[in-house]
Design brief:
Elements: E1 15-24, H1 32-53, E2 61-64, E3 68-72, H2 79-98, E4 109-121, E5 124-126, H3 128-137, H4 140-148, E6 154-159, H5 160-165, E7 180-186, E8 189-196, H6 202-209, E9 212-213, E10 230-234, E11 237-241, E12 247-250
Parallel strand pairs: 4-6
Antiparallel strand pairs: 1-3, 1-4, 2-3, 4-5, 6-8, 7-8, 9-10, 10-11, 11-12
Helix pairs in contact: 1-2, 4-6
């Protein structure tokens, strides 16, 4: 009895792409009709910010998820334009949208950006970059800063590789001093990210994660010993500066996960 060989598996060429994800704060608390409006508004502000930046949203491979969108951008997308002008235009569009809205209808976003290997997959995208963006987006520190800075509609986090390769160069109006370093640990993922509150000084991110000086046990992040850190603590988040002057935001081992500021 003869058997047919299985057809060869097509080769997949992984590509290094910029990945971006945006998520609405407290979306699940809205009633159905309001959720429908907010979803349309999210698409609208992302479209407008991209257009004003000169980015072609039609070329983005988008994966909507109700209250959020994950997008893989074309390989020729200028990274500095996304981290600089796009983020600033998005903040401005949110401010305009919310200017005459009630508190219940106010849209506030978390934004995460990383770059890395991406592959198309049956349910969307596969690869380390989409996974990393999802973890950065759901970092407790990012949620806490957004909850703690009521004057902003947008808080962004960029991966350490984008900060080192793009932000530090200062192109497109990027100011490295306006980013606060934090160590993210979500599920099996662990890495550094840099939090930025557009239109605010770095003190917004700093004070959003800490305020009063207090002794603190070692945060579960790599770095110098506690004796070599100047730390601030609030609601279980430690913020400090290492010996080289870098800012570290760390989570202690027992974080109050029931606090609504850390949950959706």
């Amino acid at each position: 009895m003869s058997t047919r060989p299985y057809p060869p598996t097509p080769e997949i060429s992984p590509q290094r792409r910029l990945c971006l994800a945006a998520d609405m704060e407290q979306y699940s608390r809205l009633e159905t009709r309001t959720q429908t409006v907010m979803q349309a508004d999210l698409v609208r502000v992302l479209d407008k910010a991209a257009t004003l930046t000169g980015l072609d949203r039609a070329a983005w491979i988008r994966q909507p998820q109700g209250d959020q969108e994950l997008a893989v951008l074309p390989d020729n997308t200028p990274e500095a334009s996304v981290l600089g002008p796009f983020v600033r235009h998005l903040a401005a569009q949110l401010a305009f949208l919310n200017a005459h809205r009630s508190t219940a209808m106010r849209m506030r976003l978390r934004l995460a950006v990383d770059i890395g290997v991406v592959e198309d997959a049956a349910l969307g995208h596969a690869g380390p970059a989409p996974v990393a963006v999802a973890r950065y987006l759901n970092a407790p520190q990012l949620k806490f800063v957004l909850a703690s800075v009521p004057s902003t509609d947008l808080v962004a986090i960029v991966s350490d590789r984008l900060y080192q390769d793009v932000v530090r160069l200062g192109n497109q109006g990027l100011d490295p001093s306006h980013y606060v370093r934090t160590h993210i640990r979500v599920k099996e993922f662990g890495n550094y990210g840099w939090i930025h509150v557009p239109g605010h000084s770095p003190d917004a991110a700093w004070s959003g994660a800490g305020g009063s000086t207090a002794p603190q046990s070692p945060p579960c992040t790599p770095g110098p010993s506690p004796a070599r850190l100047s730390q601030h603590v609030n609601a279980g988040v430690a913020v400090g500066r290492d010996v080289t002057g870098g800012v570290i935001v760390g989570l202690p081992r027992h974080i109050p996960l029931t606090d609504p500021r850390y949950t959706r």
